[in-house]
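Lab meeting prep.
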Amino acid sequence: MGVRQLFAGVLVCLGVVLEAAPRQPSEAQPAGLVQSVGAVAMTVGSMERSIAFYSDVLGFEKVSDVEVLGEPYERLHAIFGLRMRVVRMRLGGEAIELQEYLTPRGRPIPVDSRSHDRWFQHIAIIVSDMDRAYARLRQHHVEHASPAPQRLPDWNVNAGGIRAFYFKDPDGHPLEILWFPEGKGDPKWHQPSDRLFLGVDHTAIVVSDTAQSLRCYRDTLGLRVAGESENYGPEQERLNNVFGARLRITTLRASAGPGVEFLEYLTPRDGRPVPADARANDLAHWQTVLVSYDAEATARAIRGSVCSALSPGVVTVADRTLGFTKGLLIKDPDGHALAVVQP
């Protein structure tokens, strides 16, 4: 299958569900197929502009900067003739990867993108002080996606007291800053720190059917369900900037790294699917990087499952320029890309 449905994904909100006990592996849920979420990657239009934004505005630090080209990378990303610059940036204990296609160039993010379209994806950046963080974003004239930070209502047991705000990077990728009150979120977000931006809690993707997505991420790849919630009301509508938004939110986690959140819009149901001609070099493309010690086993596991391969098999990368020896690009049932890499 070519690159034709390689778009990314999604959007909105809050990893604000209570952690549940880890599920026990079953025959349908292989143990240890994915060891961790290593990074969240996005395609950017100008690397220098993106580096400046993520470092100067949000406090990320650049840890590597390389260029790759050649047949293995063409097969991995399903883009012929690519030359790609990849910059890895770290915030606290988590990382993002910025990918600029020097050739061939892709398309911009659709100007009419909405938070419930299924190509919408974001990362949630935890802050130590929401008011100071929002003031910093205003100082740098970021583009709003929410009208202002929202405090989620106390009637919502899982989310009450959490504050969140959506905005966009220079390419139009949606981002979230998130503040957890005491007793919510990972305990590490409550450790004393002099930093304003602390790290990445999760990446969120819009899905059309939670049960179907679980068959890919949980039953095939082996991530565990960490919590569930249902969010709605005027605060949620303004956060996502979607009138009438009612979301079923499901959080999954590997043993390490950011979580992956499903955002299923129960209402409205008119979110658009990933375009059939989407490609990895389009700026709307995201990919969640999953670390596995057996890429071949992952490739075998997805055969006949609801998740499918985008690369034509496992690709061996001899130069280790990007820190892995084998890789495979796959997609979930809604077309969100996942890069499985073997160290």
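Slide two material, second protein:
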Amino acid sequence: MIDLRCLRPLDTTAILTSVAKSHRVVIVDEGWKTGSLSGEIIAQIMEGAFDELDAPVARVCTADVPIPYAGHLEDAALPRVEAIVDAVHAMT
């Protein structure tokens, strides 16, 4: 697992090294799926470690809706633990 605390510069070396070890990738991003940082990370993986992958890259992102103000609706829009676990199980 890699927790990217710094996005600029993006630690592409660490990401590609992790892909070479695990051969699978699940990206969790609180941004929207469309036009998000997770898309850039996937592009870097495809360019630098495509042959290392044993399964397609999976993304768990915020729903493509405006983030609601109400807390319970915000929680429903953000990535949930269940969705992350399901994405990981789908790779095995």
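Talking points for slide two:
The two ends are 16 Å apart (CA to CA).
Residues 12-90 form a domain with the Rossmann fold fold (CATH 3.40.50.920).
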